[in-house]
Write a structure and sequence with these properties.
Elements: H1 24-28, E1 34-35, E2 41-45, H2 48-51, H3 59-68, H4 87-101, E3 105-109, H5 112-115, H6 124-139, E4 143-149, H7 155-159, H8 166-184, E5 190-194, H9 199-206, H10 217-241, E6 250-252, E7 255-258, H11 264-287, E8 289-290, E9 298-299, E10 310-313, E11 317-321, E12 324-326, H12 344-356, E13 361-365, H13 373-392, E14 397-403, E15 422-425, E16 430-433, H14 435-446, E17 448-449
Parallel strand pairs: 2-3, 2-14, 3-4, 4-5, 6-10, 7-11, 10-13, 13-14
Antiparallel strand pairs: 1-17, 8-9, 11-12, 15-16
This protein binds beta-D-fucopyranose.
Length: 450
């Protein structure tokens, strides 16, 4: 028997995900100037593997290369990451452009396999390089938001069983974060130890759309629980060294809605998906216990209260037919990723969070893969309006960060997915600010929309 969704249990946290409106067209009617409160933080986000280039010593690169050996129809990865944006060498230019745009905070991540290239061996020169990157942001007046784990793990960790070998994994991860936090912490304004603790377990071990492409509910639960531990461990380590530093998480918020709102099964399926996919992690932080189906509300040491702010990543919505997610409907606007454009979804996620988690919220990712700048501007405009709507309704949203500063390597989809405010010509590595970048720059300067 399925457990009763949390929002239906007496005395539990409730989650009302219904929002009126929805289509891009309806949103366009709500135009008009809006301004954000003073001090609202505007910024951009990126990650190490997707931008740096030269990261050959991790699980993703290994899997991308292995995939190249498969016959074309069987390939799951578009292309290998290789040189990516050469951000490792070109970061001063990228940060000059960020400064020119008026970026106030930039989110970046550390590549574990650079800092610990072999088991037990720390590469001090990699840490020094990251210090210089953080310093370069500071020199340009840009605040830093640092992520310690954004999907990849070193090859030597993969050889030992990766995420599934919990004991070795946690020991190795602890050593990595300890040295990284100690070496870089004085240059960090905001911490996001883990990017999307829900995505690796879900994509890699339950639905099989991400490496290592497993569909194994038990492995899914084990790996997800490891992510809880990684988060709690990182939070405690950071606080031990930098007690005042704000620490959050960048969580992939998934918005689900009934495929047919008239059907009880679809409505129930959407409510169940919304609560289990989005609630368990935060419930864990609130209570210190891991809820069903990831646990039986068993306590995890160090988890309770291990968060100072919530980072919300939002892109799209999914329809539910009962408990089955289904494709977009005719008439839906989709991005190059095939993701449905649904701005009210970010409002729904924000208001839900505002009601359930008593913490400030920063939108740590929102953006669109497109080569059409008018479309990018419409997408960002509509979502920023919904963020404002949540603010007006009393949700403590403190900032908004666009994914991404530059075009970059979009995991299995490769370089064709252009999320950047700055275009990269991958043949020459030339950077050019796009129309969407200029538009977002104005938003940041005006602290609102015209
Ligand atoms: C998020 C990831 C980020 C990027 C965007 C498009 O889920 O955190 O790395 O790929 O999607």
């Amino acid at each position: 028997m399925l457990p009763t969704p949390l929002h239906l249990r007496k005395g539990s946290i409730s989650a009302d995900w219904r929002v009126e409106g929805g289509s891009e067209k309806k949103e366009e009617k709500k135009m008009g100037a809006i301004s954000f409160p003073e001090g609202f933080l505007w910024g951009t986000a990126a990650s190490a593997y997707q931008t740096e280039g030269g990261n050959y010593n991790n699980d993703w690169f290994r899997m991308e290369m292995a995939d190249q050996q498969r016959p074309l129809p069987k390939r799951r990865m578009k292309e290998p990451c290789g040189d990516a944006c050469d951000h490792w060498n070109r970061y001063p230019e990228d940060y000059d452009l960020a400064q020119e745009l008026g970026v106030q905070v930039h989110r970046l991540s550390i590549e574990w396999s650079r800092v610990v290239p072999k088991e037990g061996r720390v590469d001090e020169s990699a840490l020094e390089h990251y210090r210089q990157m953080l310093q370069a942001l500071k020199e340009r007046g840009i605040k830093t938001m640092l992520c310690l784990h954004h999907f990849t793990i070193p090859l030597w960790m993969l050889a030992k069983g990766g995420f599934e070998n919990r004991t070795i994994f946690m020991r190795a991860f602890r050593e990595y974060i300890e040295v990284t936090v100690r070496s870089l912490g004085d240059l960090v304004d905001y911490w996001l130890p883990i990017n999307e603790p829900n995505v690796v377990p879900l994509g890699g071990y339950l639905t099989g759309f991400f490496p290592p492409y497993k569909i194994n509910p038990l492995a899914f639960i084990r790996v997800y629980r490891t992510f809880f531990e990684m988060h709690a461990q990182s939070y405690r380590t950071i606080k031990r060294h930098f007690p005042a530093a704000p620490v959050g998480v960048a969580f992939a918020f998934m918005h689900f809605q009934p495929h047919d709102p008239a059907k009880t099964g679809d409505r129930w399926g959407a409510a169940f998906a919304n609560t289990t996919a989005n609630l368990r992690f935060f419930e864990g932080i609130k209570t210190g216990c891991i809820g069903f189906p990831l646990g039986l509300w068993d306590a995890l040491p160090g988890l309770q209260g291990a968060m100072d702010f919530v980072g919300l990543n939002y892109y799209s919505t999914t329809y539910m037919k009962g408990l089955i997610p289904v494709d977009s409907k005719a008439g839906d606007v989709v991005t190059d990723m095939g993701w449905i454009v649904y701005p009210p979804g970010i409002y729904a996620c924000l208001t839900y969070l505002g009601k359930t988690v008593d913490l400030p919220i920063i939108v740590t990712e929102n953006g669109v893969a497109t080569s059409d700048e008018a479309f990018r501007i419409r997408y960002l405009d509509a979502h920023i309006r919904q963020v404002h709507r949540a603010l007006v309704d009393g949700v403590p949203v403190k900032g908004y960060m666009c994914w991404s500063l530059t075009d970059n390597f979009e995991w299995d989809k490769g370089f064709g997915m252009r999320f950047g405010l700055i275009r990269i010509d991958y043949a020459t590595q030339e950077r050019t600010i796009k129309a969407g970048g200029r538009w977002f720059s104005e938003v940041m300067h005006k602290n609102g929309l015209a």
